[in-house]
Amino acid sequence: MQKIYIAGHRGMVGGAIARRLQARKDAGEDLTLITRSHAELDLTNQQAVCDFMQTEKPDVVILAAARVGGIHANNTYPADFIYDNLMIECNVVHQAFAAGCRRLLQLGSSCIYPRAVHQPMREDALLTGVLEPTNEPYAVAKIAGIKLCESYNRQHGTDYRSVMPTNLYGPGDNFHPDNSHVLPALIRRFHQAAQAGDEVVTIWGSGKPRREFLHVDDMAEASLFVLDLDRATYDANTEPMLSHINVGCGTDVSIMELAQMVADVTGFRGRIANDLSKPDGTMRKLMDVSRLADMGWRARVELQTGLQETYDWFVGNQDAMRR
Ligand SMILES: NC(=O)C1=CN([C@@H]2O[C@H](COP(=O)(O)OP(=O)(O)OC[C@H]3O[C@@H](n4cnc5c(N)ncnc54)[C@H](OP(=O)(O)O)[C@@H]3O)[C@@H](O)[C@H]2O)C=CC1
Ligand SMILES: C[C@H]1O[C@H](OP(=O)(O)OP(=O)(O)OC[C@H]2O[C@@H](n3cnc4c(=O)[nH]c(N)nc43)[C@H](O)[C@@H]2O)[C@@H](O)[C@@H](O)C1=O
After folding, report:
1. Ligand 1 centre distance from Cα of residue 61 (Å)
2. Which of 116, 209, 246, 296 is the most buried (most CB within 10 A)?
3. EC (predicted)?
4. Residues with Cβ within 6 A of ligand 1?
5. What is this model's ipTM?
6. 133-142, pLDDT tens digit by residue?
């Protein structure tokens, strides 16, 4: 029997991972899933995390809890983004280790790479240049998370792994008008404009930046794929001080192209305008996913299909939305 703790199981990614593991359990795998909501366990609280880990002693930890947000939230609340994420990582990784957990998977982000890095971004581009200022504090925390895992592996022989997702989306996303990422923000804005018969929808920035969007089900599948790799395979495909693995779909679109796709899905027929007072952020973020592809995993959900599904979910769940 394997005891697996999923930190952040009520979030978009943690929820998708939890559903997959529950399906495996239902199919007969000998798993015990451990979860705690944020209200039940604040992962920034060292003593609480220590008590929890010592009581539960999970065999495996999946760290999908983090303070997460789009460009505006990152830029407006930098202290929250660096403090919460550093504390969550330190507490979860160290207390998992102290409780005897040998395998852990943590989720980072594509913003760990320098803002002007060669595209597509390879894992070995880490720490080779200056970060994007709109999300530097979050990126520093995510880089620290990778180095934390690597350091425990090197000093204590643990098997702590890191995956770096590109921009994610899907059912369960955060559709907050200001603090969310671009895809859910645009779904909400274009839907409301289509319903109201508005003639103009304004998107932030120039529309020229390019982003790679991965569906959350693909991300959940990739996370478990990496977690399930035997240690020899993981170690053979990574390096002790370059241990993270990119996760993406390998293609990107401009924000204006995305906006047009969202307009079509929501039935908005008006004009798209730009608010140039808002930041563009990094001009391009496309993952080099060859490390993961060489191990046998590829994304499956097409953006058009995933966007329609996410829009349908948004329309059906507006009342139950958590933020
Ligand atoms: N969404 C994206 O585009 C991307 C996400 N990622 C990474 O993927 C991971 C999952 O992100 P995603 O699912 O989108 O994020 P969500 O915001 O949907 O989920 C994050 C979860 O973490 C929980 N959480 C936050 N702070 C604490 C805390 N102090 N104690 C306990 N729980 C806490 C949240 O609970 P509550 O809501 O109750 O606070 C929530 O359940 C994160 O590591 C993120 O950095 C990486 C790249 C892109
Ligand atoms: C996942 C990733 O997410 C963040 O980085 P980001 O990729 O810049 O994320 P974003 O989704 O917020 O924006 C993408 C682009 O889209 C434009 N844009 C247009 N209109 C809206 C809009 O209405 N909302 C938002 N949020 N952006 C908009 C926006 O101006 C930008 O050019 C970081 O938190 C970072 O730390 C991180 O890891």
Report:
1. 15
2. 246
3. 1.1.1.271
4. 8, 10-14, 38, 42-44, 64-68, 84, 88, 107, 109, 165, 167-168, 174, 181
5. 0.98
6. 999 999 999 9
135 lines ligand 2 (CB under 6 A): yes
Looking at residue 105, which CATH number applies to its domain? 3.40.50.720
Sheet holding 253-254, edge to edge: 253-254, 210-211, 284-285
Q: What is the pLDDT of residues 203-245, one digit of tens each?
A: 999 999 999 999 999 999 999 999 999 999 999 999 999 999 9
b/e map of 40-62 (b: 16 or more CB within 10 Å)?
Answer: eeebbeeebbeebbeebebebbb
204 ligand 2 Cβ < 6 A: yes
- On whether the pTM is more than 0.80, the answer is yes
238 is in which domain, residue-wise?
Answer: 2-174+212-251+285-302
33 within a domain of the structure (yes/no): yes
In total, how many domains does the chain have? 1
